[in-house]
Design goal:
- The longest helix is centred in the middle third of the chain and has 13 residues.
- The strands form five sheets. Strands 5, 6, 7, 8, 9, 10 and 11 form a seven-stranded antiparallel sheet that branches. The protein has a four-stranded parallel sheet with strand order 15-14-16-17, with helices on both faces. A two-stranded antiparallel ribbon has the order 1-2.
- With 517 residues, it is α/β, with parallel strands linked by helices.
- The chain has 20 helices and 17 strands.
- 34% of the residues lie in helices and 19% in strands.
- It folds into five domains: 144 residues, DNA ligase/mRNA capping enzyme (D-amino Acid Aminotransferase, Chain A, domain 1), CATH 3.30.470; 103 residues, Nucleic acid-binding proteins (OB fold (Dihydrolipoamide Acetyltransferase, E2P)), CATH 2.40.50.140; 73 residues, Orthogonal Bundle (DNA polymerase, domain 1), CATH 1.10.150; 76 residues, DNA polymerase, domain 1, CATH 1.10.150; 73 residues, BRCT domain (Rossmann fold).
């Protein structure tokens, strides 16, 4: 998948290393130039890289020249590195891996090295936003321990954010599928971190009021993490902006709602077209129905043209060939590719469909819990009662209420049944000991050895009835970490709470032998 990872290396032992996937600026520009639909162009190399490595089609990742750069060695059994990080990196280089650029420094040369990197970073073909300073002496670094969040053997810092002043020209109000209407500041274009920026989210009414934003105000803007444009400061603070009382999409009345101490603008109109565009975008997303090539901008075109009014219409787009191929950005080839992608998504699962419906509070993990409880049988799923749902570990009253309310609506049920005439739901094969881990909550941390990525381990646990959480708490039953003696934050928390720490091998041994932990 990654262009520069060697297919074979001289070393034959167990090797664990960490690194980062990167796309160069030159490849980023080339890929964007090849995209005929301007609405599909990527904003920056990081977004392109993230989307590329998450592709279900490995060929896409390869064609986009995604490269891997190692920045640390976790383990290489039987190799003596003389207690040196630099020796580890050079050894990785000798095995055929590309490693991050580094320089050996001491107290006298560190400032000069930082200046050197700062001066040269603008000419790099690879995106970079800062430096890491680490002790070369591995044992000494480890002896320093960790803070609540980070190891004490290294520090990281970002280059100072590039900040530019500009003038707000207007505030655009953007409606979402949830009904929230989000304010976006439109300002005179400025160059930041190599790209032209002319808009930044103001997030909600509370932030707008705090900044005292108004048309004509002079503001300073920057890119958070060199990616996301943000208002840094309002230098004039006129506060002359009026909050609209109508939805910018449907024209219906908008209302201000408050959640905790934060005020939002909201459109209560259930039939607002903006909600439909956003809900269709969610419906075709990767973890839902996974219709590749159907972007939000394209969906907006189809909705505006009357081609998509409900979910099932996505599966009837082939009926509108003449109209679609005449649209800007479309032709016979792109139309054929779209229909092929739509047809590929017809064979799917109850989990994908349920998640794709965008029921409030029902995310992907909750959809998995519900579908597993009802044996992935759609009739049982849509007729689930509040009492049945709240019996599922991880499904609370708010989720159950939202779920039952959704399927109590006849319009929703009709829309879902319409979808079912166009797709085929496949039930996943039930693994042996399918409920072996039922009602057991795991937390995963550290490097994995037996699985290609963390998602594979999560799916195994969930398929056997278990649950995976992101943080250690009193509700955690086991922490999975191949380094049981580690002094990481999660390990320490688990020890404090008396939670057993196990390895992948122990978990797999339980599963293979059918032993419930």
């Amino acid at each position: 998948v990654f262009k520069n990872i060697p297919l074979a290396i001289p070393y034959k032992g167990d090797l664990v290393l960490r690194g980062e996937a990167v796309i160069s600026y030159s490849d980023f520009n080339r890929i964007n130039e090849e995209m005929l639909d301007a609405t599909l162009k990527y904003k920056n190399p990081r977004n392109l890289c993230s989307g590329s490595v998450r592709q279900l089609n490995n060929r896409v990742t390869s064609e986009r020249n995604v490269n891997f750069f190692a920045f640390s060695l976790v383990r290489a059994d039987g190799v003596d590195f003389g207690n040196s990080r630099a020796a580890q990196l050079e050894w990785l280089r000798s095995q055929g891996f590309d490693v991050v650029e580094y320089r050996m420094v001491d107290a006298e040369t560190v400032e000069e090295a930082v200046r050197w990197f700062a001066e040269h970073v603008e000419g790099y073909d690879l995106p970079t936003d800062g430096l890491v300073l680490a002790f070369d002496d591995i044992a000494y670094g480890e002896s320093l321990g960790t803070t609540a969040k980070f190891p004490r053997d290294s520090i990281a810092f970002k280059w100072r954010d590039e900040i530019k002043e500009t003038v707000i020209k207007e505030i655009e109000w953007s409606a979402s599928r949830t009904g929230l209407i989000n304010p976006i500041a439109i300002f005179g274009p400025v160059e930041l971190e190599g790209t032209t920026v002319s808009r930044a989210s103001l997030h909600n009414i509370s932030i707008m009021e705090e900044l005292q934003v108004g048309i004509g105000d002079t503001v300073s803007v920057y890119k958070a993490n060199m990616i996301i444009p943000q208002i840094h400061e309002n230098l004039t603070r006129s506060g002359n902006l009026q909050i609209p009382d109508k939805c910018p999409v449907c024209g219906g009345p908008a209302e201000i709602r408050q959640n905790s101490d934060v005020k939002y603008l909201y459109c209560p109109n259930k039939n607002c077209a903006a909600k439909h565009i956003k809900k269709f975008t969610h419906f075709v997303s990767r973890d839902a129905m996974n219709v590749e090539g159907l972007s939000e901008a394209t969906i907006e075109k189809f909705v505006s043209a009357g081609l998509i009014r409900d979910y099932a219409d996505i599966y009837r787009l082939a009926q509108h060939r003449e109209k679609i191929v005449s649209m800007e950005g479309f032709g016979e080839k792109s139309f054929a590719n779209l229909i092929e992608s739509v047809d590929r998504s017809r064979k799917t699962t109850a989990v994908r469909l349920l998640y794709g419906l965008g029921i409030p509070n029902i995310g992907l993990s909750n959809a998995k819990l519900i579908c597993r409880r009802f044996g992935h049988d759609w009739s049982s799923i849509e007729n689930a009662t509040y009492e049945q749902l709240t019996e599922i570990s991880g499904i609370g009253g708010v989720m159950a209420e939202a779920f039952v309310r959704y399927f109590s609506d006849e319009e929703n049920r009709k829309a879902v049944h319409d979808i079912l005439t166009e797709i085929e739901l496949e039930k996943p094969d039930a693994p042996a000991n399918a409920q072996l881990l039922e009602n057991i909550t795991f937390v995963i941390t550290g490097s994995l050895e037996r699985f290609g990525n963390r998602k594979e381990l999560v799916e195994l646990i969930e398929n056997m009835g278990g649950k995976v959480s992101g943080s250690v708490s009193a509700k955690t039953n086991y922490l999975i970490n191949n380094d049981i003696t580690s002094n990481s934050t999660k390990n320490r928390k688990a020890r404090e709470l008396g939670i057993p720490i196990i390895t992948e091998a122990q978990l797999l041994d339980w599963i293979e032998n059918g032993n419930r932990p």
